[in-house]
Amino acid sequence: MRIWFLFAWTVFLPMIANYAIRATGDTKIPALIMIGSTVLNGILDPLLIFGFWGFPKMGIAGAALATAISRATTTFISLYLLHKRYKMFEFKLSKLALIWDSWKRILHISLPTIITNVGKPAAVAYVISLVSIYGNEAVAGVGAGDRIQMLLYMFPMAMGSVLIPFCGQNYGANKLNRVHDAWHKTNLIGFVYGTICLLLVLIFGKSMVGLFSNDLEVIKYAYLFLWIVFISSGCQFAAVHTVFVLNAIKRPITAGVFDFLRSFLFTIIFAKIGGHFWGIYGIFASIAVSNILGATISIAYLKKLFKKPETLT
User: Fold this and answer.
1) pLDDT of residue 285
2) Angular region, 140: left φ>0, alpha ψ -120 to 50, beta rest
3) What percent of the chain shows pLDDT beyond 90?
4) Band of pLDDT at residue 313, cut at 50, 70 and 90
5) In this model, does residue 113 exceed pLDDT 80?
6) pTM of the model
7) Residue range 148-179, pLDDT digits in tens
8) Spatial distance between the Cα atoms of 33 and 10, rounded to a whole number of angstroms
9) Which class for 55: exposed (0-12), middle (13-18), buried (19 or more C-beta within 10 A)?
């Protein structure tokens, strides 16, 4: 963690730069940068962890350094492209009034998201604290299940990241029908993909978890976590995509409230109730119930807005 925190800036800068590039409508370059970072990280990992080809054998510290080098490389590439290709990065200080005005505009959108993103890991920590009473195997099972969940969620999350600049541009051009169509179709794809993921988990879930652990208890808890949570995966995708659209149409506070309710408040309340009455089944089910309820509320709200287009302008 000492190495990771020393290079934490290599996490934030390329993320901001890639979102700025996506906002221009170019989604290919950010994707190539991210893929390049992953490939470079994969090459450096064995070299620095195990000391192959004359490199120092550093163990876990080598994994951290490999990540830092790969991210630093993509940081400089992203900033170079922003400066040379997109003319969005300048080596001069603007007037303080202009900087402050820019910060206010950005924080109006980002501050609710920041608050929500702080709540998400807090809710996860609370859920894990409830799971911990069932033993280390249960905690390890949730950890393995969460890794698989994140892997399967990459596709709809990538779609969602493209949804923001697309809807923002069309909202600015007053083409609300295109915003609605993009949101509707993205949600439809999310529900179909979520159903496919659930089937994959039901059929191959235990084999997937076997890649992380051969402990039968860990596999049991991870499989239980996965199939219960993935029942609501389509709703989770729809809820997240709806929040993205609300941000794009200048409803950041509303988006933040909906995201906070789903990912933090509902999860904590239902986890406590579910754990008390149904044990670990109830704890895992709390995540699914939160996703379903959060999606229902946010979708109903945005549908109501689209029925009255004058409220969106």
Assistant:
1) 93
2) alpha
3) 28
4) low
5) no
6) 0.76
7) 888 888 888 778 778 888 888 899 888 989 99
8) 13
9) middle
Structure tokens at 170: 């069309």
Convert the pLDDT of each residue in 37-68 to its tens digit. 888 888 888 888 887 877 888 888 888 888 88
Two structure tokens written together for 9: 């800036």
Q: How far apart are CA 74 and CA 11, in angstroms?
A: 9
Query: Quick check: 86 and 24 in contact, CB under 8 A?
Result: yes
**Buried b / exposed e along 157-189 (16+ C-beta atoms within 10 A):** eebbebbbbbbbbbbeeeebeebbebbeebbeb
- What string of H, E and C letters represents the secondary structure of the chain? CHHHHHCCHHHHHHHHHHHHHHHCCCCHHHHHHHHHHHHHHHHHHHHHHHCHHHCCCCCHHHHHHHHHHHHHHHHHHHHHHHHHCCCCCCCCCCCHHHHHHHHHHHHHHHHHHHHHHHHHHHHHHHHHHHHHHHCHHHHHHHHHHHHHHHHHCHHHHHHHHHHHHHHHHHHHCCCHHHHHHHHHHHHHHHHHHHHHHHHHHHHHHHHHHHCCCCCHHHHHHHHHHHHHHHCCHHHHHHHHHHHHHHHHCCCHHHHHHHHHHHHHHHHHHHHHHHHHHHHHHHHHHHHHHHHHHHHHHHHHHHHHHHHCHHHCC
Distance of CA 186 to the CA centre of its chain: 16
Kindly report which listed range (187-196, 211-220, 228-237, 276-285) carries the lowest average pLDDT score.
Answer: 211-220
